[in-house]
Every structure is written in structure tokens, then in C-alpha cells.
């Protein structure tokens, strides 16, 4: 699905070759500041490589129309963005930006329940806890039905049990709907339980390449 070659971005990332397969759950791990978020942002061209390339579904990120690319490959950032208004407003605005029809009330309510959110669609987004905001932002992305989900620490504000429950559901959804999920996480518990492909980043390098370089 993604083929990275000779990628360089400032002093932050340097990857000779890396493939991320279609389908399943890929986890990106590594120390704080190692370049995980930067790599994630490059996959839908929110950040442009200084040199090298990333092929997405066989086509260079430079050749994709950025809007089309980001509709196919949606990113949920580390700190969830909440818009002023109700939970309903926050869910519908994603569909509006994606130029998709508004979802009916029962679909919105079902999505909240699926994410273990026991809140009203009428609740003020400002009144939500951090973990609730994180899941509303996740629901907003899921409703737009992208082919690839880029999730930057999607469970950082959740307790371990809730994180495991949500990740289990996300993985089932990804498998049944043939989605590709790529997630940055610091949770070894989630990696152990759910990751099918784990990429370790070490000081801006793919860990296997960093090791080879160190041996030379
Ligand atoms: N535009 C930029 N210009 C220069 N340096 C940058 C830029 N963006 C990020 N960095 C630096 O690159 C490094 C990697 O940042 P990044 O956010 O990708 O790390 P991370 O692995 O996701 O960290 P964390 O786990 O703490 O979220 C950091 O040292 C950061 O300060």
C-alpha cells in the first residue's frame, strides 16, 4: 500500500526502504521524539519529503491530488480537534468536509455506542472529558469511511481496559471492511495484542536500517 524509498526530511527522518502492507493493523513504535508522527504525516502528504518518495497505491505522493489523497487516507491527530457546538455537530462536520451526505441520527448514535461512549448527541463538545473527545474525533473520522486510517496515539487519554476494547473493535472493523489501519502507540499492551506489523523508529530511522548502519 505504501512504499517508501530514500526518504529524507530535515534531520528528522531518514528511511532507505520501507513497505507498509494493505489491510490489517500496523503499529509504529519508538521513543518520544524519534519521528513517528512525522512519518505518519508524510503518508498522506501533510508533510512533504525533502528527497526520496512515498508511493501510495503505486502512485507518488507528489502526483496525488492532496484533497483526494487525504479523503482516502484520513489522519486522527494526537490532540483531538473539537469544534464549538454539540457532539452531533462535531460528527457531521467531518462528513461535510468530506463532501459526503449527512448520516442519519441513529447511525450517529450507534457509532457513539460502538465506541463505548455514553453521551448524548446534544452534549456540548466543551463539556466532554479528554477520553470522550478523543473518541468523538475518532468517530468523526470513521464516519467518513476512509480506506486508510492514520491514528496518532488514539488511546492516550483512555484507560487500559477501554483502550483494549476500542482497539479490538477497530481491528474487527478493519478486517471486515478491508481497511488499513496505521497507528502510532506507546502502549506495549496494544502492540502485543493487536499489531500485525510493527515498525520501530529509532532517532528518525527505521530501526532495522539504524542497526545495519551501526554495524558498518
Ligand atoms: N518541521 C520540523 N522541523 C524541525 N524539526 C521537527 C519538525 N517537526 C518535528 N521536528 C522534530 O522531529 C523530531 C520528531 O518529532 P515527532 O513528532 O515526529 O516525534 P514522535 O516520535 O512522534 O514523538 P512523540 O512520541 O513524543 O509524539 C522531534 O525532535 C521534533 O522536535
TrEMBL record:
GO MF assignments: ATP binding; ATP hydrolysis activity; transmembrane transporter activity
Subcellular location: Cell membrane
UniProt cross-references to InterPro entries, sorted A to Z: AAA+_ATPase, ABC_transporter-like_ATP-bd, ABC_transporter-like_CS, ABC_transpr_CbiO/EcfA_su, P-loop_NTPase
Protein's membrane topology: Peripheral membrane protein
Entry keywords, A to Z: ATP-binding, Nucleotide-binding, Transport
Lipid metabolism in keyword set: no
Pfam families listed in its UniProt record: ABC_tran
Gene Ontology CC entries for this record: plasma membrane
Protein name: ABC transporter ATP-binding protein
Lineage of the species this protein comes from: Bacteria, Bacillati, Bacillota, Bacilli, Bacillales
Amino acid at each position: 500500500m505504501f512504499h517508501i524509498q530514500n526518504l529524507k526530511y530535515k534531520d528528522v527522518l531518514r528511511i532507505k526502504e520501507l513497505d507498509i502492507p494493505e489491510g490489517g493493523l500496523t503499529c509504529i513504535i519508538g521513543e518520544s521524539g524519534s519521528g513517528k508522527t512525522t512519518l505518519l504525516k508524510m503518508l498522506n502528504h501533510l508533510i512533504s519529503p525533502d528527497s526520496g518518495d512515498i508511493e501510495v497505491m503505486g502512485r507518488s505522493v507528489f502526483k496525488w491530488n492532496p484533497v483526494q489523497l487525504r479523503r482516502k487516507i484520513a489522519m486522527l491527530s494526537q490532540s483531538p480537534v473539537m469544534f464549538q457546538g454539540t457532539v452531533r455537530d462535531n460528527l457531521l462536520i467531518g462528513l461535510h468536509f468530506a463532501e459526503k451526505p449527512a448520516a442519519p441520527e441513529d447511525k450517529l448514535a450507534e457509532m457513539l455506542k460502538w465506541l463505548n461512549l455514553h453521551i448524548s448527541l446534544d452534549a456540548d463538545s466543551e463539556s466532554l472529558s479528554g477520553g470522550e473527545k478523543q473518541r468523538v474525533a475518532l468517530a468523526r473520522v470513521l464516519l467518513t469511511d476512509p480506506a486508510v486510517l492514520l491514528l496518532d496515539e488514539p488511546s492516550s487519554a483512555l484507560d487500559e481496559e477501554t483502550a483494549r476494547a476500542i482497539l479490538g473493535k477497530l481491528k474487527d472493523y478493519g478486517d471486515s471492511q478491508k481497511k488499513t489501519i496505521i497507528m502510532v502507540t506507546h502502549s506495549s499492551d496494544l502492540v502485543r495484542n493487536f499489531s500485525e506489523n510493527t515498525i520501530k523508529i529509532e532517532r528518525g530511522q527505521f530501526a532495522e536500517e539504524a542497526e545495519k548502519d551501526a554495524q558498518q
